C-alpha cells in the first residue's frame, strides 16, 4: 500500500503577510521537486497558520519511476575506423556511460549517423529521496529574513520544530539545529504536543488541538462568526478583504467577538474611527443599515470562547485609549486656523535641495494656476483650484495626520469644511493624492484633477531635477506611481493639453528657481514619462513596436495616444494594412532628405506626381480636422487614402532625379506628406509579423 | 499586583533564567536599548544575559502630568539574552503567567513589528506582543547593532511597565497605578512630570543645549581616540538626550534633524566598532567563562 507523507515546518509567529505566500511556495516547490525526482502521488494538500506551514502528499509511489534515456555519442565516422572497428573515441564514450561497445547502436540524426547507448535509470526507493525535502524548506524566500541564536540560516522567523513523516516513519534531517520528528504542537495555549502516526490524521489532530490548519476554513469561520453577529444584532460589519486576509493569518483558532465603545466618540470623523479600529487594532467597524457607524467593533481572538468577556473588556480598554487620543487630537486641531498650520510648513523640509513644504506649496500653486488657465477653466473654478493648492498641505501639520499619516488629504477635506472653506476646495484637498495606488480611483472633480496633476508633476520634476531619478527598486518618492497617476488622469479627463505642454509649464517655473538642477533634467523627465506611458499602454495589451510608434515623437494627448495605439493594433491584424503601412513608411524614410517644404505644382512632370499632390491637398484638411478632434479612426482613413497614390508615385518616378529642381520638388512633396503621418504616429517603428 | 511586585516578579523570573540583574544606567536615555548593558554588550561573540529596569525619558511625550497615557519618563523592564535561547517565547510567556496573566483567559498574540533605530545603526526583527489587543512588550531579535552584524543574535524583550500595570491593575489613568501599597505613580512622579514638561517646552535654555550638544560630541570624539569606549558612549547618550530636548522644544528643523541624527549615528558606529576591537584585545573574557554565564 502506498504511503502518505507529511512535512510541517513549525515556526515562531510568521508575519501575517508572509503566510499565504509561504504556503504557496511550499506547494509549488514540492510539486516541482516530486516531478523532477520522478515520484508519483495521488494528491497534495498544503496548510498554513502563523505558526506552521505544511504539506500532505497522499499515496506517494514507493520508488521513483525508472526511465530509459538515450545518450548520443560521436558520429559514426569518428566512432569507427576505416576497417569498421570501434575507435578509442567510441570505447571511451561507452565506458563513460557505464557500458561497452556492444551496447552501441547507430542512428541517423539530420542525415548524419551517430552512435547511441540506451541507459536505464533505475528508480530509487522514495524513502531515500525524501530527506532532500530539506532543500525545499531552506529555499523558501521571504521579503525579510532573520538569523537567530547561533544559527547561520536566514528564515522569516526562527524554526522551532519539524515534522517529517513517510507512512509511520520519521524522515530524518536537520535544519538549523532542529531535528525532524513525528510530534506536532497544537495551539500555543490550548493544544498539547501530539504524535502523528499518519499524515492522514494531521488536519484532525491539529483541530483537536485548537488549530485550523486550512487557511480557507479559518477565513470561512471568521466570516460565519461575522454573519452570526450581523444577524443577531441587525447591523452590517464592514469587511475589508485585506484586513480579513491579515486577521486570518494572525490566528490559528478564530473566535469572533463584538466590543463596544462610548457613543460620544461617534462625533469623530468616521475615517478617523475606522482607521483607529482597523490600522492599529485589526478590528472590523460596524455600520447600521442606513450606513452610519455604530459604537461597536468586531475583533477576532486567537482561541476559544473561554473567558471571552475578559478579552472583550481588554480590547475595549485599548480602543477607548486610542479613541480618547484621537478625540484629543481632533479637538486640539480645531483650536487653530489653517494659516497657523501653513506657517508651520515653513519649517518642514520637503527635500533637502528642494526646500521646505511651504516652498513646494508655492510651486504647486503657481503650476495649478498655469494649468487652470491653459485649460481655460471658468474663473470660479480657477479661483478654487488656486485656493486648494495654497492650503493643500496644511493638514500635514495637524496632530491627527501626524498620528495617522494615511489620513493625509482626508483630514484636509474634513478640517477645511470645519474651517469654512468652499466645498470644491475641500474635496480637491482629498483628491490631490488620487490615485493612491496603481489602479486606484481617480479624482472625480476637475479641480481635484488639476491639483492632483500639479502636485504630482511638481514632485516628479523637482526630484528628478536634483538628480534623484528612480532606479531599480529605489523609488522613495513613488515617482513611478505618481507619473502613472498623471497619465491616467490625463486619459480620464481628455483635456486638450499634451503632457509635453504640461511639463513645459513646470519647467518654465523651475527655470526661474535658484536650484541645483541637473543639466539634462528635462530630457530625463521626458524619458521617465515615456517609460511610464509605455507601461500603461502595454497593460492595455499594446505591443512594444506600436507603443514606440505612437510615443516616438511625443506622448502628446495621452488619451489620444492610447486611441491611436489601439487603432494601429487593430489595423495590423488586417492583411490589407501592409500595403498602407509600406507606402507611409516609404514617405517617412525619404523625408529626411528633403531640404524644403514648399511644393511647386508647376514642376510636376508626371500624372502620378500630380495625383499624389491632389490627394494630399484633399486629405490634409480633413486629417487635421479629425486629428485635432482626436478622432483617430477618421484621421487615419485620410492617411489610408494616400497609400495608393504613394505607391503610384514611387513606381512611376525617380524621386532622386538628376534635375535638382525636380528632385527637390519631389522631396518637398514627400516631406509635407510625412508631416501628416508623423502627426499620427512614427510608423517606421512598426515591425512586420511572420503571419503576413 | 502593584508595580513594585511586578518588578520583583520579573527580576526573580529572569534571574532564574541566569540573567545578571543590573541596575538602571545612570545617564539619561530614551529607551532601555540605549543602556550600554544592551547596546554594547549585545555586540561580539561573548554570551550575555541581563535584566534591568530602565527609566526612559522621552521629552516630547511630556504632557505636564495631564495625559492618562503619556509620560515624559516611563519605565521599561529590559531583558537581553545572547545567544537567543530556543525556548525564549516560552520563557517570556511564563513570566506573564507569574504576573498573574493566565493565557487561557486572555488573547496573547505575537504581531509582526520590526524595529529600527537609525541613530544607533540598529535593526531587528520580531513582534509586539499583544495582550487582549494591548501592546505590552516589544520582542526583538537584533540583526544589526551600531552598523555591525549581530552574531550570535541577541533577543531583546522590552516590557512597558506602566502599560502592563494598567492592564493588571485595571486602571485607566497611569497616575492611578499603585507603585506599592498606598503609594501611587502620582505620588512619586506627578511633580517631576509637570516640572520636566515645563522645563522641556518652556524653560530650557536652547542656546545652552546647542552648546552642550557640540561639547558632548567633541568630548566623545576626543576620548574615543584614546580608546575609552564606555566614557565615550556616555557622552553619546548625553548628546542623544540633549538632542531630544532640543527636538521637543521645536528648535531643530527637519534638515538639521537629519544632520544631528547622522552625527550621533556616526559616533555610535565608531564606538560599536571600538567596543568589539577592545573586547577582542582583551581576548573576549566572557567567552572563556561562557559555560558559567550561560549556567
Give the class-level CATH name of the largest domain in chain A.
Mainly Alpha
Portion in helices of chain A = 40-55%
Rg of chain A, nearest Å: 35 Å
What CATH architecture of the largest domain in chain A do you see? Orthogonal Bundle
Main location (chain A): cytoplasm
GO molecular function, one term (chain A): glycine-tRNA ligase activity
Family (chain A): Belongs to the class-II aminoacyl-tRNA synthetase family.
Keywords (chain A): Aminoacyl-tRNA synthetase, ATP-binding, Cytoplasm, Ligase, Nucleotide-binding, Protein biosynthesis
Secondary structure blueprint with pairings:
The complex is a heterodimer of chains A (692) and B (295).
Chain A: E1 3-11, H1 16-36, E2 43-49, E3 52-60, E4 67-75, H2 76-79, H3 88-96, E5 105-109, E6 112-121, H4 126-129, H5 133-138, E7 159-166, E8 169-170, E9 174-175, E10 178-181, E11 183-184, E12 194-195, H6 202-208, H7 215-233, E13 236-237, H8 241-248, E14 254-260, H9 270-281, E15 284-287, E16 293-302, H10 308-334, H11 338-345, E17 349-351, E18 355-356, H12 357-374, H13 379-390, H14 399-403, H15 410-418, H16 423-431, H17 446-465, H18 479-493, H19 499-511, H20 521-539, H21 544-551, H22 558-571, H23 577-591, H24 607-628, H25 632-652, H26 660-680
Parallel strand pairs in A: 7-10
Antiparallel strand pairs in A: 1-3, 1-7, 2-3, 4-6, 5-6, 7-8, 9-10, 11-12, 13-15, 14-16, 15-16, 17-18
Helix pairs in contact in A: 9-10, 12-13, 12-17, 12-19, 13-16, 13-17, 15-16, 16-17, 17-18, 17-19, 17-20, 18-20, 18-22, 20-21, 21-22, 23-25, 23-26, 24-25, 24-26
Chain B: H1 3-16, E1 20-21, H2 36-39, E2 48-57, E3 73-82, H3 88-98, E4 108-112, E5 115-117, E6 122-131, E7 134-145, E8 148-149, E9 155-160, H4 161-168, E10 178-180, E11 183-184, H5 185-203, H6 206-224, H7 229-249, H8 254-281, H9 285-288, H10 290-294
Parallel strand pairs in B: 1-2
Antiparallel strand pairs in B: 2-3, 3-9, 4-6, 5-6, 6-7, 7-8, 7-9, 10-11
Helix pairs in contact in B: 6-7, 6-8, 7-8
